[in-house]
Design goal:
With 398 residues, the protein is α/β, with parallel strands linked by helices. It is 32% helix and 20% strand. The chain is elongated and about 85 Å long.
Length: 398
Amino acid sequence: MKALKNDVEEAAGLLGISRWTVKAYIREGRLRPVRLGSSVLLAEDEMELSKGTILDASGLPVDGHYCTLKDIGKAWQAGDLIRFALEHPPKPVIRGLLNEGDILLLHGSEESFKSVFVLQIAENLAQGTELLNYWKVPEARRVGVIETEIHEVMLGERLAKMFPGGDAPKSLLFMPENTLRDWRRLTLLQKFDAIQKWIVENDIQVLMIDTANDFFRGSDNPSDERNVGQFFDELRNLKVGARIIVRHDRKKNLEGEGEMSSNENIRGSAEWKEDPESIICLQRRDRRTHEVSMEVGKLRYGSKPDPCTLWFDLKSFKLTALPPVIEVLSSGDRQSRETIVTECEKRFDLSERKIAEMLAEHGQFLKESMNGHSKQFEIDLDKANQAPWWKFLFGEEG
């Protein structure tokens, strides 16, 4: 890292990081004060830098999502900002949820299918397919996943259920368990150095971290604003297109939780909810069911979509935004009531009574007929566009 400035605070502003991170870099030896005449350099080496040069943590000119205008003086003119926005529009990674250069934080209570959703998002990104059949992924990316909570054997079993034909995308990559063991022993800054090396060696475009807990060991505290601020500084300095991280919720509900934003449930420092551009919350109110609510609690550059209900499907080992009876019928084939009950019991662990209630609830969007003594059901495509789940059946442009 190289910066030509005469104090830590200005260097922090120049580099787009916190002053705590600058001080940490000095302690780690990644920056050192060098006195030249009456000025003090913060530099890795004594290179000549012109006034106004802005470099990132790797010593490269800042560009892309955080690129800067050249030679316009110390202030940005309104016209330059307008021109710059037109010339450099955001590049979506997941349209409507995540752009290049952004951080998306996924949080939720325990056993709310967060890790399942992480792998599902990773698959969509690696294959360029819609998330929940709705949010478009404009192009396939090389995805690197750092999975810190699931043993590699169990992870392999989950992936086998997701890809029963053995057709997992080659662009979906995972940090090996033996590498993770060594990585956990490193300091916070060393961990990010190791991740950057892994990103470069594997040409990773989107980084996913499940969970961020292992970054905070020893004296690093996820409830300390300085430590978490440094974590986000380092995360943004990684040379990668976008970042998705997972964080747990508080174990105890806060008083008045129902009236508060779901973001307030995120465990630790307020930085966890203030720094990311996008925040998604998963809440499982009843662990006896496969039902989970999804809410986009924060979307810095757009309008937040309405909350929706997701269901965990044991067959695909993924979450679906379609009610179970609709998911079973979504193939388009006419199904008997007995088949629907059997499939919903096996895939969603539902009782026959609950399945009957769902058939009645969504009956107005179904065609019902008889085949002998057996009731038959299929989705009524002429009426389904009035259903609350229609966009997840037909897709964004359905």
